[in-house]
Write a structure and sequence with these properties.
alpha+beta; membrane; transmembrane; 3 helices; transmembrane helix; five-stranded antiparallel beta sheet
C-alpha cells in the first residue's frame, strides 16, 4: 500500500471520532423506524391471525394470554420510545460551546445512545417472544367441552350432550355420540331435570 493511501486512511480514522455520534443517531433512527413498523405488523398479525375471542380459552390460560400480550405491548412501546430517545437526544438539552465540554458531552452521549440501542433491541426481542408465547397459548389451549356437558331428563327420555341454549320454549343440546353435527332440540315444557355432567 502506498504512503498516500496510508495517510488517507489515517485521516479517515481521525475524522471518524467526530462523526461517530451522527452515525449512531442514524442507526438508532433506522432501528426506531424498523421497530415501530414491526410492532405494528405484529399487532396486526396477532389481531387477525390469533383467536378472535380470548374469552373462549379455559380460565387460567385466558389470564396467561392476556398478561403475555399486555407485557409484550408494553415492552414494544418502551423499546420504541428508547429508540426515539437515542435518535433525537434528550429534549431541551443545552448546547456546549466549549471544545472540552463538547468533547465530554459527545463521548457521554455516544455511550448513552449505544446503551439505548441495546435496550431497544432487548425490549423488541423479549416483546416478540411474549407475543409468540401468547399466540401459542391461544392456538394450543382449547375449550374444555366437558364444561358445558349436561344430562337432561325429559318426558321423552334421557339425553346427554353439550348445552347450546336454554330458552323458555326450547332446550338445545349437541350430542356427543351419534350424529354430533345435528343439534337435539327439546321442548322446555317436557324437560324435568337438567344436571351438569362430566361425561356422556
Amino acid at each position: 500500500m502506498s504512503a498516500g493511501a496510508d495517510r488517507r486512511w489515517e485521516e479517515l480514522a481521525r475524522e471518524l471520532q467526530f462523526s461517530q455520534l451522527d452515525q449512531l443517531r442514524k442507526q438508532a433512527e433506522g432501528w426506531r423506524n424498523g421497530l415501530i413498523g414491526l410492532t405494528a405488523l405484529v399487532t396486526v398479525l396477532a389481531v387477525l391471525k390469533g383467536r378472535d375471542d380470548l374469552s373462549k380459552l379455559p380460565s387460567p390460560w385466558q389470564t396467561v394470554a392476556i398478561l403475555l400480550l399486555g407485557s409484550a405491548f408494553l415492552l414494544l412501546v418502551a423499546g420504541s420510545l428508547i429508540a426515539v430517545r437515542a435518535s433525537f437526544g434528550k429534549p431541551g438539552e443545552l448546547l456546549h460551546l466549549g471544545g472540552q465540554s463538547l468533547r465530554k458531552w459527545t463521548l457521554t452521549e455516544i455511550r448513552r445512545v449505544r446503551q439505548a440501542l441495546y435496550l431497544s433491541m432487548s425490549a423488541f426481542t423479549l416483546g416478540m417472544a411474549l407475543v409468540a408465547a401468547a399466540l401459542g397459548v391461544s392456538w394450543t389451549q382449547t375449550e374444555d367441552p366437558a364444561a358445558d356437558l349436561v344430562k337432561v331428563a325429559s318426558t321423552t327420555g334421557d339425553f346427554c350432550g353439550q348445552l347450546v341454549s336454554y330458552t323458555h320454549a326450547n332446550v338445545t343440546l349437541l350430542p356427543t355420540t351419534g350424529d354430533t353435527t345435528k343439534p337435539l332440540v327439546l321442548r322446555t315444557a317436557d324437560v324435568r331435570k337438567i344436571v351438569p355432567a362430566t361425561a356422556c
